[in-house]
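queue> holo job accepted (iron/sulfur cluster)
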Amino acid sequence: MLHILYHIFLISKSDLSLAPIKMICTMPSMKNPAHNIYIHVPFCMSKCNYCAFFSRACANPDWGTYAQKICDEIDTWYQKLGKITVPTIFFGGGTPSLMPANIFETIISKIYTLFDVAPDAEITVEANPKTISAEKLRDFVQIGANRLSIGVQSLDDETLTFLGRQHSARDAIELINAAQKMNIRTSADFIYGTPMDTVYSVVQLCTQINELGIRHCSMYELTIEPTTPFGKKNLQMPDNGAMAEMYDAIGKTLNLPRYEVSNYATHGNECKHNLNIWDGAPYIGLGQGAAGRVYMDNQWYEQMGNNERFEKISNNVRAIENVIMGMRTMRGCQLTDDVKNVIDIDWVQNNHELVKIIDDRIAPTDKGLMILDNILTNVVK
Ligand code: SF4
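queue> job finished
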């Protein structure tokens, strides 16, 4: 699913200093800060034509082995971090809604047993409409899920077939309605910028989204990755100008304010998990290939999966990451001392039509957001 993009930082490996650290298997001597938890579920019914994410088509995986591995990782983190507070848990993929409810329960129970899950914790499950009935959703909610992020992608069946999705628009709408009836927070992901898209079709999509009454949606521009089925075709994609017009039309048509480059929500319905991460909070990635940023004994670590990578990162590198991630959001990045050390304040002050400083935060303007990548190369020294 597309949210994984936020777990990949645009920093070259050479910037990430220092050698791997030996695993520490003793209980920590001091209370470590709260960590958000991301759990990767790498299985899907089939691969979508545009998907370059770490997932494989496998409708009947060995769920028992999967759950055991995740629980083992939770044990390892408990040994390293102690009974940390957990403000958010996010099951992403892949297709987490493929999981049987008892597997979801096993993992959630393990987290509750070893960690101090906040009473108001946000627990999100990503869902493909073809893989979850209203009954199964009810089970997930009873176990603890309180936010559903649905991969809708399009409300046009021809476009869904083109994208390689296995569900229809009706399937997606029925799932949205079921989630809304259960009163859990509901988000939907959409893709725009297919070869068939125009500003008119995107405005129509946004109008339909408004009618659905959802309070959060993500609008992702279709990008073609060479390793995907789309990458092997010679698709005639809309040019940059057309894409920019579509992006602009989305902002003007949706009745949800944009709070991040691709995310829109009414106030209070933003994804708390992603906001925390964009704001530089520590998080753990569970499952193969899942990335995290761990803060332990006053030191930041870059982490991936269970021992795939665990390396110290300097405060400087972490500050650069915070600028890159924070500037994706409309509220921007907090100007901590570390952040002040890595930004070019003269450039910022000379380009106030692109970047603004309000109180103790630096954020892109609407104009700046349209050329965020260019801005970042100037903002970061
Ligand atoms: S559902 Fe499709 S887009 Fe999402 S991870 Fe699976 S293959 Fe990729």
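queue> DSSP finds 13 helices and 17 strands in the chain.
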